[in-house]
Amino acid sequence: MTTAHVTGNRRVEDATRGFLGSAALAGNLQRVLVDLIELHLQGKQAHWNVVGPNFRDLHLQLDEIVDVAREASDTIAERMRAMHATPDGRSDTVAATTSLPAFPAGEQRTADVARAVTARLNATAATVRAVHDDVDAEDPTSADLLHAILADLEKQAWMLSAEVGSA
Fold it and tell me: What span, in angstroms and rounded, lies between the C-alpha atoms of 119 and 149?
């Protein structure tokens, strides 16, 4: 039986447990996780309260964004578990640690929603980019997941920003 300790950003293997990620790797993935969860929640808030021209299309597009964020958060949380870290997606943790600004309460006009959710997609993508190099240095597998998530977030931001001509 092989045991190992996590040292810096060095990849550590344990014969019985597999890949053991460092606390820094887990922390970086946790940052991405909370922003994805918050994006999912804010996307639903926007979906429920959007009003105005092009309502139906935007209403449906917001559900696509919610699905992207929800699936990506599950991917990140499951990767954390695979490296023996514990993801924390509790609402109080998400609210206290997300980098996304709060979403306004009440009904929101379609153009305002498109701009606000685009900004939140871009902010989530910025979090992914901010942690990417450190994640890649320790765990290229996790970095590959971040690449796919980043592509999805940036595609959704582009498509949504096109709704109001702010691409």
Answer: 16
**H-assigned helices in the chain:** 23-49, 55-82, 91-97, 110-138, 140-161
For residues 10 and 128, the model is more confident at: 128
User: At 50, which helix (H) or strand (E)?
Assistant: strand 50-51
Query: Alpha-carbon distance 95 to 54, whole Å?
Result: 31
**What is the rounded average pLDDT of the residues 88-108?**
97
For 5-21, give the DSSP string: ---TT--EEETTTEEE-
For residue 135, which amino acid is it?
V
The Cα 89–Cα 39 span in angstroms is 13
